[in-house]
């Protein structure tokens, strides 16, 4: 079960009060997103994020609020488990609008609190409604794989990351976790204890016009420059959402390590890791689910499109920092360079698995390398693979793969990195040729 890092105080998340204005970017919306300390009542040992229902137009109290935040712990041992799975069959990578991910979930009552996925029953859903199974044989089976605390319901309630199988026990084609788990359970891979630090970038869109948050409707803000890690009403748009997500991840037990505003206004990033093996994918998928739910409550659209706005604007990536035990030990720099050589030889295989629409982002501009060529460099953010100055100085450390798009599947990317750098062996001829090309590149 994921470790819990819970806030020490009880916090509230208010849902926005909608108006007839097309854009949700109003003062009321931002004030409704503020996370306020609840100073009333006695102190409690645990923390939770409260969900407040909308008030009716005549300002009378909506009684749903009391039920949404009802603490059932004193009255029953039963808990609610939210079974979550990904569905990669539906394409929603349109340039403006659409999340770039398709996650589904359904709730199940469990008789008592649990500590491990093995204590949870398998479940099923209608695969014909998600494009994953035919109507005449529509059951898709959910296998619980990872548990996180539920920051929306609080208490002992949980979020459950699942993967998907046929009734016969075969992984369905969209189940990418199964193959990743096979790679990470390989004895050669597990002995290397692969670490991943994933930088998830995302864009917040105004709900009704599908235009970035903070941008004038139908127009553009000032050029890029002051927005990255910026502060101020004219530079930072969506901070309350990013902060709410940050705390929700800590509460859930996700290994989130930081967050910041990005280069394009209305765009943010958070980092998850270091995580070992399959955990990296589980934590990223759960963090994406939390972000979907928080933006849902805020009345804002989440987009993981790798290039939401054409032109002189940064795209959105999912840079993946990676190291093995051999890379982190003395002499690890040579292992890193050998890994880079292998990655250069499988550049096309990696690009094809690194997200949809990535060709619009990897242009050689805006801190990216060209999608058609492989390159690496020290402290160079215009390369396919970046190695940090400290890694070069210490002679050990990690590499950063800057090619993955924001909508990449973390199970696919992390397992492919491990496979290419640990399990895959090129021919001597290919290795020698690649070494010559990389030498010229550097």
Automatic annotation (TrEMBL):
Compartments where found: Plastid, Chloroplast
Segments for region (Disordered): 110-131
EC number annotated for this UniProt entry: 6.3.1.2
Keywords, in A-Z order: ATP-binding, Chloroplast, Ligase, Nucleotide-binding, Plastid, Transit peptide
Catalytic activity of the protein: L-glutamate + NH4(+) + ATP = L-glutamine + ADP + phosphate + H(+)
Domain GS catalytic: 173-442
GO cellular component: chloroplast; cytoplasm
Enzyme class name: ligase
GO biological process annotation, one example: glutamine biosynthetic process
Pfam families in alphabetical order: Gln-synt_C, Gln-synt_N
Start and end residues of each GS beta-grasp domain: 88-169
Gene3D superfamilies xrefs: Glutamine synthetase, N-terminal domain (3.10.20.70), Glutamine synthetase/guanido kinase, catalytic domain (3.30.590.10)
InterPro entries in the record: Gln_synt_N, Gln_synt_N_sf, Gln_synth/guanido_kin_cat_dom, Gln_synth_cat_dom, Gln_synth_gly_rich_site, Gln_synth_N_conserv_site, Glutamine_Synthetase
UniProt-recorded Gene Ontology molecular function terms: ATP binding; glutamine synthetase activity
Chloroplast in keyword set: yes
SUBUNIT field: Homooctamer.
Family that this chain belongs to: Belongs to the glutamine synthetase family.
Name of the protein in its database record: Glutamine synthetase
């Amino acid at each position: 079960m994921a470790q819990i890092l819970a806030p020490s105080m009880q916090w509230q998340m208010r849902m926005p009060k909608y108006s007839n204005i097309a854009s949700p970017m109003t003062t009321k919306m931002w004030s409704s997103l503020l996370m306020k300390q609840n100073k009333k009542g006695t102190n409690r040992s645990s923390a939770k994020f409260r969900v407040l229902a909308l008030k009716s137009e005549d300002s009378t109290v909506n009684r749903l609020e009391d039920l949404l935040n009802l603490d059932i712990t004193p009255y029953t041992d039963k808990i609610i488990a939210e079974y979550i799975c990904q569905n990669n069959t539906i394409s929603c990578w349109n340039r403006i609008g659409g999340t770039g991910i398709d996650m589904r979930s359904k709730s199940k009552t469990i008789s008592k609190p649990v500590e491990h996925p093995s204590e949870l029953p398998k479940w099923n859903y209608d695969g014909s409604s998600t494009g994953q199974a035919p109507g005449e044989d529509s059951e898709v089976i959910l296998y619980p794989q990872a548990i996180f605390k539920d920051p929306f319901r609080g208490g002992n309630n949980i979020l459950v990351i699942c993967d998907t199988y046929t009734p016969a026990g075969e992984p369905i084609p969209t189940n990418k976790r199964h193959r990743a788990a096979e790679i990470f359970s390989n004895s050669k891979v597990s002995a290397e204890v692969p670490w991943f630090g994933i930088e998830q970038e995302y864009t917040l869109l105004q709900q009704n016009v599908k235009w970035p948050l903070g941008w004038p409707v139908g127009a553009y803000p000032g050029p890029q420059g002051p927005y990255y890690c910026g502060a101020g009403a004219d530079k930072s748009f969506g901070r309350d959402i990013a902060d709410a997500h940050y705390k929700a991840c800590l509460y859930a037990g996700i290994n989130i390590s930081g967050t910041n505003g990005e280069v394009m206004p209305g765009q943010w990033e958070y980092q998850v890791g270091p995580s070992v093996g399959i955990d990296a994918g589980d934590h990223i998928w759960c963090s994406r689910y939390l972000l979907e739910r928080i933006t849902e409550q805020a009345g804002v659209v989440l987009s993981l499109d790798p290039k939401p706005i054409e032109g002189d604007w940064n795209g959105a990536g999912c840079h993946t920092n990676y190291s093995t035990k051999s890379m982190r030990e003395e002499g690890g720099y040579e292992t890193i360079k050998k890994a880079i050589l292998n990655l250069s030889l499988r550049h096309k295989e990696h690009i094809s698995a690194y997200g949809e629409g990535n060709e619009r982002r990897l242009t050689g501009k805006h801190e990216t390398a060209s999608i058609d060529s492989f390159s690496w460099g020290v402290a160079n953010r215009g390369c396919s693979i970046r190695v940090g100055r400290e890694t070069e100085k210490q002679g050990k450390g990690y590499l950063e793969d800057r090619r993955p798009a924001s909508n990449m599947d973390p199970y696919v990317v992390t397992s492919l990195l491990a496979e290419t750098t640990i399990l895959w062996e090129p021919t001597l001829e290919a290795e020698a040729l690649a070494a010559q090309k990389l030498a010229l590149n550097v």
